[in-house]
Design a protein that fits this description.
Radius of gyration: 32 Å
Largest sheet: none
Order of helices and strands: HHHHHHHH
Mean pLDDT: 76
Number of strands: 0
Low-confidence stretches: 13-18, 31-64, 213-223
Shape: elongated
Structural class: mainly alpha
Distance between the termini: 75 Å
Number of helices: 8
Length: 223
């Protein structure tokens, strides 16, 4: 009775001993690809995270976005321009309401042109005042005179508001438009102002509703 000959042990083949590419099974390929993907993704994550500043991490972390970082909040509270903005905003809104009534009155009855015109000029001056002081405030708090990241789109729309008010002054000075058309231009400027004011109010409301622990959580992520 013949017995099967034992199969000789095959020594492991290393890359250096192999005359050509070492064949890899589909299962090995999947495993290698899977683990290499994990390593690569961890490297990319650590690299990108290392390039973020504390401000970026505090604002970009899921569930912990903040309008102000802890340092920006400190600068905001210490800036005298914060009080100036808090005073000018309601003053401008009051001037807007009075002027809006006068403009509508003129368009409806044709009376009170001088008062309506003067009110729009006063409203425009108030707008310039809050824009200039607001830019100084933004520079002190965020480091930019305009287009700081937390208020980027609000600032973009503010430029449109300022442009429409300035267009009114230019048309008034050059008599480029009739009194009726001037009042319509004023209404367009006021409509843009209302939208812009709503943008700021919603953003500030979001800031007030943020949890006090958000900044602390973000600082923990940065450490």
């Amino acid at each position: 009775m013949s017995h099967p000959k034992p199969t000789p042990a095959v020594p492991p083949v290393t890359v250096a001993d192999s005359p050509g590419p070492v064949p890899i099974t589909p299962r090995q390929a999947r495993v290698a690809s899977h683990h290499s993907g994990i390593v690569l993704s961890n490297i990319l994550y650590d690299s990108c995270r290392g390039q973020l500043t504390g401000v970026d991490i505090e604002r970009s972390s899921p569930g912990s976005w903040s309008l102000y970082t802890a340092e920006e909040r400190r600068r905001r509270d210490a800036s005298p321009w914060t009080i100036v903005q808090a005073v000018l905003a309601p003053v401008q809104f009051f001037v807007f309401l009075v002027s809006l009534c006068l403009v509508i009155r003129y368009l409806a009855s044709g009376e009170g042109l001088a008062l309506a015109t003067a009110s729009v000029v006063v409203k425009t001056i108030a707008l310039y005042a809050i824009m200039i002081t607001g830019s100084i405030w933004e520079r002190q708090v965020f480091g930019y005179y305009l287009f700081a990241r937390p208020f980027f789109w609000e600032d973009v729309f503010s430029i449109l508001v300022l442009a429409l008010h300035t267009a009114y002054l230019a048309a008034l000075a050059t008599h480029a438009l009739s009194p009726h058309d001037l009042m319509l231009l004023a209404l367009a400027a006021y409509a843009s102002y209302v939208i812009n004011a709503t943008q700021f109010l919603l953003k500030l409301r979001t800031a007030r509703r943020q949890r006090p622990s958000v900044a602390a959580e973000a600082m923990g992520l940065a450490s």
